[in-house]
Write a structure and sequence with these properties.
Elements (H helix, E strand, L loop, with lengths): L3 H12 L3 H33 L2 E9 L11 H22 L10 H7 E5 L12 H7 L3 E10 L2 H69 L9 E3 L8 E3 H45 L6 H14 L4 H24 E10 L3 H43 L1
Antiparallel strand pairs: 1-3, 1-6, 2-3, 4-5
C-alpha cells in the first residue's frame, strides 16, 4: 500500500517532462506544426499584397520662428492637431464631401505629424546657458508628415492633400482667431471706453474747479503769492501742507494728464468703427472660404476698401494694425513651411509581415499540438481511472 508521500512522488514523476518526451512530441507533430506555419506564411504574403499599405513621408522645414518672427511651435502644433479635424468635419458637412474622411480623424493628425525639435534635453550639457534650453525647447526645426495608401499614387496623393490641408487650415484658423479677437476687442472696448471717458470727464471738472479756486485764493493774497503760504491738500492722505503755487502746478499737471487720457480714449473710440467694419465685411469671407487659397488676399482687399473712406490718421492706425496682422499670417503661409526634399514612398513591409506570419503560424501549430496532446492524456487518465474504479467495485 502506498503512503501519501509515495503517491505525491509518483504524481510528480508522471507530471515531469524529459528530453525524450520533447523529442517524441516534435517527431510526432512536426509535420502539422510546419503545415500550419506555412499556412500562416502564405496568409501573411497574400494579406500583405492585398491589404498592405504604402507609406509616403515628407519633411516640411519650419522657417517660422527662425527667419519669421511668429510661427509654429509645440503649443501651436498641439492646437492645430486638435482644431484641424473639427475644421475638416465642418467642411465635409457643408460640402457633403466624404472623399477625405481620414482628415477628420483626431488620431490621424496626432499620429501622422512628428515634430523634429531643434534642441532636446540631451543637448542640455552642450549649452553654456541653461535658460537657452527652455527657450529653444519648443522650437520646431521641421515637421515630418506620413500617410498610408493602398498604392503609391494613393499614398502620394494623401500626403499632398495632408500638407495642403495643414497649411491652408492653419491659415484659416489664424484668420478666424484674429477675427474673434477683434470681435472681443470691440465688445470690451465699447463697454469700457464709455465708463473710462465718463470718469475722466467728471474728474477733469473737479480738477479744473480746484485750479480756479486756487487761482482765486492766490489773487486774494497777491502780496504773499510767492511766500510760503500753505493750505491743506485734501487729496493728500497725509494732509500735508503745500504752497499755493505748488498746488496749482500739481493740479494743472493732473488736468493735463486727464485731457491726454481723454484724447486717447476718444481716439480708441474712433477706431472701433474701423474694427466693426472689418468684422462685418470679413465674416462672410471666413464663413465661405475654408478652401479658399487666397483668403488672406481677400481680407487685405477689405482693408483697402475701408481705407478709401477713411480720412483720420487715428482710424488709419487701426487699419494698419489689421494689415500688419494679416501680413504676418500671409508670410507664415507663403514661407513658414517649405518642403525639404521630395516625397519618399516605402512599400509594404513584406519581409516583416512574412516573418510574423511564419512565426505566428509555427507558434499556433505548436499550441494546437500541445493542446491535442494534453486532451489525449486527459482522456487516457479518465479511462484508466474508470477502469480502476470498475475493478475495485
Amino acid at each position: 500500500m502506498r503512503t501519501p508521500e509515495s503517491n505525491s512522488d509518483h504524481n510528480l514523476d508522471e507530471m515531469s517532462i524529459s528530453l525524450v518526451d520533447v523529442v517524441q512530441f516534435i517527431k510526432r507533430y512536426y509535420k502539422s506544426i510546419l503545415s500550419i506555419g506555412l499556412a500562416g506564411l502564405v496568409c501573411a504574403i497574400v494579406g500583405t499584397f492585398v491589404l498592405g499599405n504604402y507609406t509616403a513621408s515628407v519633411s516640411l522645414q519650419n522657417l517660422s520662428g527662425i527667419d519669421i518672427p511668429s510661427g509654429i511651435d509645440i503649443p501651436s502644433l498641439k492646437y492645430l492637431q486638435s482644431a484641424l479635424p473639427k475644421l475638416e468635419q465642418e467642411n465635409q458637412e457643408k460640402q457633403k464631401d466624404k472623399g477625405t474622411a481620414y482628415l477628420s480623424s483626431d488620431q490621424f493628425w496626432v499620429q501622422s505629424i512628428k515634430p523634429i525639435i531643434l534642441v532636446g534635453k540631451a543637448d542640455g550639457k552642450d549649452l553654456l546657458d541653461p535658460s537657452s534650453l527652455k527657450s529653444a525647447g519648443s522650437n520646431i526645426a521641421s515637421l515630418q508628415f506620413t500617410a498610408k495608401g493602398a498604392s503609391e499614387a494613393v499614398a502620394e496623393g494623401r500626403i499632398d492633400e495632408m500638407t495642403k490641408t495643414f497649411i491652408n487650415g492653419a491659415t484659416y484658423i489664424g484668420l478666424r482667431d484674429l477675427l474673434r479677437r477683434y470681435e472681443l476687442k470691440v465688445i470690451e472696448a465699447d463697454s469700457n471706453l464709455n465708463k473710462k471717458i465718463g470718469s475722466a470727464e467728471v474728474e477733469l471738472v473737479y480738477v479744473e474747479r480746484r485750479i480756479q479756486n486756487l487761482m482765486i485764493l492766490k489773487n486774494q493774497y497777491p502780496s504773499v503769492a510767492t511766500a510760503p503760504l500753505q493750505v491743506v491738500d485734501a487729496k493728500d492722505s497725509g494732509a500735508k501742507y503745500l504752497p499755493i503755487s505748488t498746488q496749482i502746478v500739481a493740479a494743472t499737471i493732473d488736468a493735463n494728464n486727464l485731457r491726454e487720457s481723454l484724447a486717447r480714449y476718444r481716439d480708441e473710440e474712433k477706431q472701433l468703427p474701423i474694427y466693426t467694419q472689418f468684422i462685418e465685411k470679413a465674416k462672410p469671407l471666413i464663413e465661405n472660404g475654408r478652401k479658399d487659397g487666397n483668403l488672406v488676399d481677400s481680407f487685405l482687399e477689405v482693408t483697402n476698401q475701408i481705407e478709401k473712406n477713411t480720412q483720420e490718421a487715428v482710424q488709419k492706425t487701426a487699419l494698419e494694425d489689421i494689415r500688419v496682422a494679416l501680413t504676418s499670417i500671409q508670410t507664415n503661409k507663403a514661407f513658414g513651411l517649405r518642403q525639404a526634399g521630395t516625397i519618399a514612398i516605402a512599400p509594404p513591409p513584406y519581409l516583416k509581415n512574412t516573418a510574423i506570419g511564419l512565426l505566428g503560424g509555427l507558434f499556433l501549430g505548436f499550441l494546437l499540438a500541445l493542446g491535442l496532446t494534453l486532451v489525449r492524456q486527459y482522456k487516457s487518465t479518465l479511462s484508466a481511472a474508470s477502469k480502476v474504479s470498475t475493478v475495485s467495485n
